[in-house]
């Protein structure tokens, strides 16, 4: 690493990275494919080094699709697998690049995209920033909102798979707390006692809560994500999800989205209202043990996603 500012991170591309890149490129007869694979490999190595330095993550490159020669030949892929989080796509950017075509397979299967500018002499790579989603399949570098690398770290933190069983066993980690903390802490930054319209009897039916601070253009929006669980006679788990205004804010804004997604990001259920509400809530749903799902909150280009397993 030559720059230790974690939002402006430059990686020295060492011999190991180039050995990987040269080995993979040599497996393709097409010069264009070989160059693509070489740059993709360097990009993946750069992001792995960043996450090793910042998060102390020791990531296994062999788990990546981009490390499989047979997949390289049919796909433009540069993924990095983060256990219990998902796949991160590493996109090399040249000085002349204005648009990046996103492979269709990555649109619903990636937690986001990191942009990496590889130096002309291939000796270093600078991480330019993070993009959490691409809806169109094309990233226009002239118009896309590139987030700082801190947003990538937030995404990794929030996307780690949370076990519902932990809540049932009164174990709370990754920013989750017992719902009683939200109700009873008198002057907490996200205390529901600062919210005039909280229905405490209803809130007590929930089990766990987590604070969310969406960074919208108009202002930061303090919210409380709440989960209620019940064990059914057939072994399934009944889940209730509510998003509540908090921190002295009486209502959640109009058009804020609360979504239930499948493990791969497919939309299963969604709720939003055209006017401000005191809270919004998904219809209760039941899951078999081991079923994975995601909860996504989105408003004004800002979003929060967390993964769960029943």
What does this structure look like?
With 310 residues, this protein is an alpha+beta fold. It has two domains: 3-155, no CATH class; 161-309, no CATH class. It is built from eight helices and 19 strands. Strands 1-2-7-6-4-3 form a six-stranded mixed sheet, with helices on one face. Strands 10, 11, 12, 13, 16 and 17 form a six-stranded antiparallel sheet that branches. A five-stranded mixed sheet has the order 9-19-18-14-15. Strand 14 (257-262) and strand 15 (267-271) form a beta hairpin. Helix 1 (15-25) runs antiparallel to helix 2 (31-55). The two termini are 40 Å apart.
Please supply descriptive tags for the structure shown above:
310 residues, alpha+beta, 2 domains, six-stranded mixed sheet, six-stranded antiparallel sheet, 19 strands, disordered N terminus
